[in-house]
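Subject: Galactokinase

B.,
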Amino acid sequence: MSQALKHVATEAFEAAFGSPPQHWVQAPGRVNLIGEHTDYNDGYVLPCAINFGTLIAASARTDAVVRVVAADYGAEVDSFRLDQPILPLAEGAWPNYVRGVVKYLLETGLPLQGADLALAGNVPQGAGLSSSASLEVAVAQAFKTLQGFSELSPTDMALIAQRAENRFVGCNCGIMDQLVSARGEAGSALLIDCRSLATQAVPMPADVAVMIVHSRVRRGLVGSEYNTRRLQCEAAAKHYGVKALRDLDLARLEAEAGDLDAIVLRRARHIVTENQRTLDAAVALAAGDLRQMGQLMAASHVSMRDDFEITAPAVDQLVDILQTAIGPVGGARMTGGGFGGCAVALMPSTQVEAVRQAVAEQYRSPTGEAGTVYVCQASQGAGSLS
Ligand code: GAF
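Prediction pasted inline below.
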């Protein structure tokens, strides 16, 4: 992650706490190549960690005080104690992501001591690139590094971060974002089985670019609609008598639909078909088959648009522009929770400038903004920096 971010975190640390930090840690955001809303259905996802994330400058304390300064929020400082109940602040307040992780770290029984932390991040916020998961996992990594908790595995950190998001921040997300932030591998996407949490690194083919384009459409409905989709998936699983939609195939989905509500049936169809597409995509990516990847990404987008109904007209338009500019070798789809946010595109690196130009010339958000283009690298998960 960038030297500039390290500089920002270090300066904020010194200004707030009056001495240099002892350690630096980082955790990345992510982009999901395919497998959307499948994680909370015990299914498969294929994200990669990206070279945008959260960096924390940190020092251990010998008492029970945690002080946190946020460089990106006007150097605001939050302070709380480990030996008193850790409570959330107002909904949406940045300290909740830190407090939640510390609360659930404590609940593991680890002998936590206080810390001074300075946060700096460069994941575009509200874009669906997991800025919050990157912050949560970075906080867990900071305590792991400061206190040498070698027993705390990357998967443990991801589960603690997810618990903080579910129970403290109040977003009922699945495990994808936190797990890839903790376990991402440089140069690879990560096929995750969200039931067993087994992961398989799928190397990105050489000379393939991962482009993210922010539609500048705000993800307004994401909280309420996300939870509605979860409930609809659970209702479908109950109808078919399966633990999760992961356990259903397309033949049974159709044969046993019975009197299942038509909308719920479409939601389930997205999950069942998306799981298969994700497994197929892992094979295609490993084989460097960008044509097949492009077809799977296109089918994923149609399924999100028509069956799961989580896209937005401007995002559909952006994906269309990207697909046309890329042609048959590579592809594009909306990525993340939906209702705005970003599209992800894969293409031969030689096409990047032409695709960038097509987006600049042809895309405008409903409020007239141009899309923001990021070309990123599949990056390493959370860890310490020297
Ligand atoms: C959000 C959630 F946090 C993830 O768990 C996942 O469900 C994703 O939306 C949709 O695939 O990022």
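Residues 266 and 307 are 5 Å apart (CA to CA).

T.
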